[in-house]
Amino acid sequence: MANINVKAVIFDMDGVLIDSEPAWQTAEIAVLNRLGLKLTFEDVESTTGYRIDQVVDYWHQRFPWTNYNNAETASHIIAAVAEHIRLNGEPMAGVIDTLKDCRQKGLKVGLATSSPSLIIEAVLTKLGISEYFDAICSAEHLALGKPHPEVYLNCAKKLAVDAVNCLAIEDSFNGLIAARAANMQTIAIPAPQVAQQTKWIIGHHQISHLSAVAPILSAYLQENTKHTQ
């Protein structure tokens, strides 16, 4: 275990706190294919972690369509995802216990997501977890979303914790790149269908579910104690 004094845990949202990635993918396929594209789930999986306007721009650059309106297309996708969350949103296994464990260990807790405020509000309300977060940051209005590290750096600043003392939890490769670029410790929880891909080696830890976070945090804190005695 690296000698890193972890003082805060920063969570990604989609795919980490809530199983919303399928909703995003379904909405993206439905809206974009109505515009004449022929995207598959494998296609849209490649943009997981991107901000939604970046997703729309990404596909327009590859398969241009007429009457391009990024904001309108993104809005249709966001509305579909928000509705799905309000009706069917479920927390990922271990979310509440992990958030409670962070609190019990005296760690600050942040949220750094590419999702817009409408989605953030829908998720936090549906899951009833707003109280656990000391800082909530979205890349919605930033010049660049993930894999750019700005949303993570902003969250660390809002938590008043140096980025090097933060541990980020991500399910997407683009998010993992962002957290690494912010010089944070990282835990990757990739979806089962992509978990065996070698690219995840760039994370400091790879786990299959949130319940495995607690022992990792304990190990960091024990290591911190050794070096302060």
Automatic annotation (TrEMBL):
Pfam families for this protein: Hydrolase
Sorted UniProt keywords: Hydrolase
GO MF annotation list: 2-deoxyglucose-6-phosphatase activity; mannitol-1-phosphatase activity; sorbitol-6-phosphatase activity
EC number of the protein: 3.1.3.22, 3.1.3.50, 3.1.3.68
Entry-linked InterPro entries: HAD-like_sf, HAD-SF_hydro_IA, HAD_sf, PGP-like_dom2
PANTHER family documented for this protein: 2-DEOXYGLUCOSE-6-PHOSPHATE PHOSPHATASE 2 (PTHR18901), PSEUDOURIDINE-5'-PHOSPHATASE (PTHR18901:SF38)
The protein's name: Hexitol phosphatase HxpB
Source organism of this protein record: Shewanella subflava
Taxonomic placement: Bacteria, Pseudomonadati, Pseudomonadota, Gammaproteobacteria, Alteromonadales
